[in-house]
Design brief:
Blueprint lengths: L16 E6 L8 H15 L3 E6 L11 E4 L23 H11 L5 H14 L7 E5 L4 H9 L2 E5 L4 H9 L4 H10 L2 H11 L3 E3 L2 H11 L6 E3 L21 E5 L9 H11 L6 E5 L6 H8 L6 E4 L4 H10 L2 E4 L8 H8 L4 E4 L4 H5 L7 E3 L4 H12 L2 H18 L2 H16 L2 H9 L4
Parallel strand pairs: 1-2, 1-4, 2-3, 4-5, 5-6, 6-7, 8-9, 8-11, 9-10, 11-12, 12-13
Helix pairs in contact: 1-16, 2-3, 3-4, 9-10, 9-14, 12-15
Length: 435
């Protein structure tokens, strides 16, 4: 039966009981954390019931969404990233699996989390109509799919992260080490290729997932992510600070292109007063070293752990928002900035042109991986108030017309219904006493 027992789950209007899996919740910044919070909230708004099974860092959810914690060894927490767990922390075979992968230099969380989730759900088959996996794609997801109808969201192929990391000049050992770390990507490709339905957030990601991971196009469906236009909107009473830029950097990873923005900022500061607000925590790594080398520390502010309302105010305080990414599967920061009415400077990396629109109309665009071109695009915006106003207004209109979380949830539910109606899944529902 449906989540409230009122009707058959195959009926278009019947509410569903959904088990949502996220191995990393990232409570304040990070696209997957935002996706988890906002999609599950919107699903509840539509009348469905959602229970989130999450690993550390745990997601922050709407009060209607139940959080079922699946603790890991948390080897990559914010305070001690890459820590070695003590032997006393090994309590079961899943901890042992995670430790073994960690010790061999492989990112262990997707495999271990999927195994824990499979174990937990195996005793609750009659409680859920469908499982929605948010880009874990560990082998345990295949075990889950054997017993419960399952759908997966794949934001972008991690092959792009691996490709970028491997492209930098490195010693043979370093290249081997990076390749070993990303060996979980092969597992994700195998699992994705066997899933009946993959939800993908952009056409660019569909093309790349097909090319890099071998997933058949007929298994994928485009469901763009969203934004809350009533939250992310212009704040007229807030005055924009001359020369203020804003960007989001949830992690110091090469794919996000923060180093190119720092280099562009250093160039711009030779001729004008430019400051930068970074939504995210300062983390040891290349970007922090570069900030010191370029003498930018006094001109950069990191902000984290604040409310969504404060983030909207920060956008309204900036003259320009910047997304300097080398690749994006979609880019939530881009549409949040645009929806807030803040004119956006963005690269052409990955799906960004698909999302941000035409240069000079809804975005100031430049080639990815080019700090000189990024500096020119930023200067172009800073020097032309009328251009900023026009792009800011047009950018918000573009987002409001195309992307909201409610629409994302509606399209996602359409995919749930299609998956549930597959003959193999009807048999699973009957076996689990859900029909």
């Amino acid at each position: 039966m449906a989540a409230d027992g009122s009707g058959n789950v195959l009926d278009p209007g019947a509410p569903l009981k959904i088990a949502y899996l996220t191995y990393r919740g990232k409570p304040h910044v990070g696209g997957q954390g935002v996706y988890t919070r906002q999609l599950t909230k919107a699903l509840c708004d539509l009348g469905h019931s959602v229970e989130v099974f999450g690993g550390q860092p745990y997601p922050v959810l709407d009060e209607r969404v139940e959080l079922h914690k699946l603790p890991s060894l948390d080897t990559f927490n914010d305070h001690f990233p890459g820590r070695l767990p003590g032997y006393w922390e090994i309590n079961d075979r899943y901890d042992l699996m995670e430790m073994a992968q960690f010790l061999t230099g492989t990112f262990p969380e997707p495999l271990a989390f999927s195994a824990r989730a499979a174990k937990e759900l195996s005793t609750r088959l009659d409680e859920f109509d469908l499982v929605h996996d948010n880009q874990c794609l560990g082998y345990g997801i295949l075990k889950i799919e054997e017993k419960i109808p399952t759908i997966v969201t794949l934001h972008h192929p991690i092959t792009k992260d691996r490709e970028l990391e491997m492209s930098h000049p490195r010693s043979r050992y370093k290249r081997w080490s990076v390749g070993r770390w990303y060996s979980f990507v092969k597992m994700q490709g195998k699992v994705a290729s066997k899933m009946p339905r993959i939800v993908v957030v952009s056409q660019n990601s569909i093309d790349d997932i097909h090319k890099d991971m071998g997933v058949s196009r007929d298994r994928m469906r485009l469901v763009p992510v969203g934004v809350d236009p009533d939250l992310f909107k212009p704040v007229p009473e807030v005055t924009r600070t001359p020369g203020r830029l804003i960007t989001t950097a949830s992690a110091d990873v090469a794919l996000k292109g923060l180093t190119y923005l720092l280099e562009a900022m250093a160039k711009l500061r030779t001729e004008r007063n430019v400051t930068l607000t970074i939504i995210g925590k300062p983390k040891p790594g290349k970007s922090m070293r570069l900030i010191e080398e370029l003498g930018l520390r006094e001109h950069i502010e990191f902000v984290s752990g604040v409310s969504d309302e404060r983030i909207v105010e920060l956008y309204s305080e900036a003259e320009l928002a910047v997304v300097p990414s080398l690749y994006e599967g979609f880019s939530l920061p881009a549409i949040e900035a645009m929806c807030s009415g803040t004119p956006l400077v963005a690269t052409d990396g990955g799906a960004l042109p698909e999302v941000t629109g035409v240069d000079g109309e809804t975005v100031l665009q430049c080639p990815a991986g080019d700090s000189d071109a990024l500096a020119i695009a930023i200067a172009r915006g800073l020097d032309d108030p009328e251009l900023r106003a026009r792009i800011g207004a047009a950018g918000r209109q573009r987002v409001v017309e195309r992307w909201t979380w409610r629409r994302c949830a509606e399209l996602t539910v359409d995919q749930y219904r299609e998956v549930l109606s597959m003959p193999a899944n009807v048999a699973k529902l009957q076996r689990n006493n859900r029909l």
